[in-house]
Design a protein that fits this description.
Elements lengths: L1 H40 L17
């Protein structure tokens, strides 16, 4: 039982350290991603349905 708790608490400690490490690196990646999403959002083209090659079936 002692071995189980030792392994369990070791895994919890590793999980907490990875969570803290990833949370510290998230801030820089999020700001870079937001700038690229803003650039992608600006490229919206209107639909030109009158000159399209598709015709009505009826």
């Amino acid at each position: 039982m002692v071995i189980f708790f030792a392994i369990f608490f070791a895994l919890i400690a590793v999980n907490a350290s990875l969570l803290i490490f990833s949370a510290m690196n998230t801030g820089t990646k999020f700001s870079d991603r937001k700038e690229s999403e803003d650039a992608k959002a600006a490229k919206i083209y209107p639909l030109d349905l009158d000159t399209s090659e598709y015709k009505k079936a009826i």
